[in-house]
Design a protein that fits this description.
The complex is a heterodimer. Chain A is α+β, with helices and mostly antiparallel strands. Chain A folds into three domains: 216 residues, Multidrug efflux transporter AcrB transmembrane fold, CATH 1.20.1640.10; 108 residues, no CATH class; 124 residues, Gyrase A, domain 2, CATH 3.30.1360. Chain A has 15 helices and 15 strands. Chain B is of the alpha+beta class. Chain B folds into two domains: 202 residues, Up-down Bundle (Multidrug efflux transporter AcrB transmembrane fold); 90 residues, VC0802-like, CATH 3.30.2130.10. Chain B is 62% helix and 10% strand. Chain B has a four-stranded antiparallel β-sheet with strand order 2-3-1-4, with helices on one face. The longest helix of chain B is centred in the C-terminal third of the chain and has 32 residues. Classes of the chains: A alpha+beta, B alpha+beta. Chains A and B meet through helix 2, helix 3, helix 5, strand 5 and strand 15 of A and strand 2, strand 4, helix 5, helix 7 and helix 10 of B.
Amino acid sequence: MGRIKSTILMVLLSIVIVALCALTAFPAFSFVDGIQGWQPAIVSLDAGSELRGGYYTYYYPQGVISATDYQNTYESYEDGSAAQLDYADQYVQYKGLYLEKDEDVGIFDDETTASADNVSATFKAEFDAVTQEIIARFSKKGFSQYRVAVVDDYALRVEVPAPARHAWSSEEPDDQNSILALQAFSELGALTIKNGAEDVDEFVKAESMTDFIDGFAVETEYGVSYIVAYLTGAGQSVIGGLKDGLSNYNPNDTSGTFLNFYVGETDTALMKVGKDNITSDMRIRYPIAYENNQAQAETYGILLNSALKTGGYDIQFTSSLINQTAEGNTMTFVYIALGAALLIGLVLPIIFFGKYGIANGYSTLSYTIIVALCYAFITGAVFEITLASLLMYLVGLVLVNLCSAYVYVAIKKEVDTGKTVLSAVKKGYNKTLWHIIDMYAVLLLAALALLIAVGGLFTLAMQALICVIAAAFCSLLWGRGINYVFLSACKDKYKYFRFARRDDEDEED
Amino acid sequence: MKKINLVEKTLGKWKLWTIISAVLIVAGIVIACVFGFNPAVDMASVKTVTVEYPYVAKVETLESVCETSFAESGVKYLDKKVAGSYTGEVVYYFDLNADTESAVVELQKDLDEAMKEGGALSGSALIKARTNKETFQEGLTDGFALRAGIALAVFAVAAFVYVALRYKLSAGITMTATMLVAIGLTVSLTALTRIPVSASFAAAALVAGLASVVMALITFNRFRDNAKDKEKEKDKTSYEKVLAAVDTKKVLILAAALTLALVLLGAIVPTARWFALAAFVGVVSATFAGWIFAPSLLVVLDKAIKPSNKPLFKAKKKDKKSKTAEESVIEEDVQA
């Protein structure tokens, strides 16, 4: 390649890299009208709870309140008034909670003898069962991190990540997946199915809805997620009989007749199944019509399966307000740490390898851009950025730079044997090619094998795939290409690599 | 770079390294089985003090009042989470043995005092503190450990097959053992040193395994390259061959680069400290496994599997200089 062509290509490459860096990392150019709201891609990373905090809420069984709620209500009465004493008489303090004495609530067997020591055994057993069910629901949801804890024996605190932030606007975070799970999973009632507003005799008389439904699953087709209900023989018979009386599916239709699926005592149906949602092989295939609806469909699927299998509980939870823990400066610290690592990855090669180090810098920046853009834009309800993701990025960064150093050493060895720079570069690349391919191949196998895992490790597998493929691309193709372009544009090839020129040698052009 | 004598001294002692690794791994498993891992706050049972505020002008002032009160009560919090700005709550996490019951009584007094006219929180009202005990139940996805184990096994088999095909059978076995040792040591040392672990710890163990694999591959690559010079290599023992293949400089540079990355992460990001430390233990384990354990094992296996110790698959490459007699005759005929 001629020097002029190489120089032009070098300039173009630089412009593209700078533009992509700006898109990826640098803040908005607020002085230009129309893109004032523009933000860098890394701001839209969906971060896990270790980085961007999380949402949490408390699930209080009916009749259980927090000490703060008790104190606030107690102090709202006039001091020493009958109402205040009456209110105080309704509750028993149990650690940091207050339990209602009323026998109808079910926490105590006898309100006259109610005390912290004689909570009903039935209530205890029921609460334990409910706790296990809540754990099962969240453990099936596949969050990268979550936390379920029992608070003072008779309440639950659940925390999930608050991953998302709008990249293109200053709106509040859109974390429907997290918030919906916290709201939906507190519902402990039974599964009921109504034909419009009417009860269905067969369903009411049955001991369990499992007589009619085997289970629920989630299917995604052409970007739309469906909740699929698999019916038993009896279910097919009953629902087949109702099918002709149903209207066609229309989520906005309030007057039509649908097969309504409810969990718990609520007026809001989780599914309003129309005639056309019942397939010819007698499955119910119900679309969830929202953005990122796979996450929503999964949440509803888990809830429906749970309600179907358990048949509902006597305990009902009251969910407190959903709190979002403040992000604080964690993400800023993350950017500083990654920025420092990147800077080292850019500067050290220049110090050690001269202009070859600059070419390596382009490769390093390209790797960072690819990973940042993939992390940012393949995240919609797919994965969250955790500390593990950052580590994976850093591992890739180290590998890109070390592979580059490895090639440099190989080229230097060839030059030391008396070869010209160009043939040494060719030989050096050839000699290291399979070493580098082998390394990335084994790492790729690791990333692929990890796809078998679940939760945070599955997330990590996808991020590892991105990092390994991006690093391999930069080490094996992109970095080499850039180096050839830079080398071609350079007049003194020895100076380019900081090699000592031998006096008896003529440099090739 | 002249090879560090350490490699020369350690190379023949595979039994010693295997015993040390096995003892550490077993000790770690025993400790993990008896006491469990030391969980990070997010995965531990804790006591909490929750301070709810319907309104405060500055949350930082509220935090300052709370933290001064805790210091005076002699209780030290492990972590805190702030939910909300003008309205919301601050949750402080304490060890299960902390006397938060007494501390919260004092805290409420200090808060009431601060809310009075002229106090640090004047203008605020109804700030209430309470303490609870939170018993951790679950934080991992259903089937997490089982599926992670299956994934590891699949990777071990796939990597073994790949390395055995591309290098040698002995290299395949060595690499699989190296990876398992690195992961085992990371998990065990983390259990033994009681470094707090969260769900992200699995990634630290995984990176240890991957780093050890890369380090072992550095040795295998040189081992394979050296083997091409058959004249030079034919009289060498397995010990000498492996000794010549260990590239200490490259292995240590890789370890140093990973350590530097972890230092940056751990030193700058407050929530990453324990994770970075666990990952650093992983890098140390990987360096031991890839730099010391793998070459030692390779010496033994290379010797033991010698009769069949050839690449299982090797692409045939025609060398112009080494034509067979038959090919030369055909060529001469064509030229004639």
